[in-house]
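It would be a great kindness if you could assist me with a short task in structural biology. The full record is reproduced below for your convenience:
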Amino acid sequence: MQGNVNGTNFSSQELILLAHNSGGEGAVPERRRFRVLHRPNRQIAERGRNIFVLVPASELPDVAEFVSIANRRHQLRALLVRDDVQPSSIPQMFERAGLRMMRNTVVYSDSSVPRRVLSAWTQNAQEELIAKASVSKDRLFVLSCALQPYEVAFNSMPSLKRIPRAERANFTVDEDGSYIYWAGPDIHLDLDAIRAAIDPEARARAEAAKALHDSRYGAAIAKLRLRMGLKQSQIEGLSERQVRRIEKGEGTTYEALRRLASAHRMDLESYLRELAVNAAKPALEKAIA
């Protein structure tokens, strides 16, 4: 279904962002696919799709009507509230605005949180990427960019068990939300691993998806190598056996991909982009070393 407000076409693919006053500073991704508003527009709240709102907590009353209308229509994807007041005053700010804390509400102090959420939606990767994480006692709490919460005990996963109690809160979330990283024990944790720990069926699905992903990318890596006229033994820093295993779909590492990109005289981003294009094709030519 499509509509038109003041000459603007609305479709199921559009993304609308109300960045109210100073609420959106530093939070909107540079590569954005949003129609950005700086003041509430009732017509857009009534007819727009996939609506996001960035606002300081102290200015919630200014956007309350817009938020309520979009939420009633089930088109409010996220209400991203910057905590420009004391944390204890946040509930009062919502009460002043006549709003309630909804499941799609995120209160943040670090602008990287809304930036991850917005970037993930532009890539249609909101279900796979992490918005933020926190630790309380023996549990890790994670929020996806689709605003789905997850909770996992540190003793429920072998990788998390390796993290000393004193270092549990010493982590960073990757810039785009791909993983959580503990530098001390050198542990990366993504949403697939968290879902697998919580739900055994999800583990099976994740393992099947990973096998398919590795197989497709292995074939794509082989195809690019052959296109460049390279032998498996000509990838500097990787043995012929390592390259053979990667191309068979047995998985790879960041460092191996970096070395493969270098051997192809490409930067890593360009190499990965080329791999993605080839891996997405319905059928890849069978590569023979």
User: Anything to note?
Assistant: Residues 104 and 283 are 39 Å apart (CA to CA). The chain has three domains: 3-122, 130-198, 200-279. The longest helix spans residues 200-227. The chain has a mean pLDDT of 85.
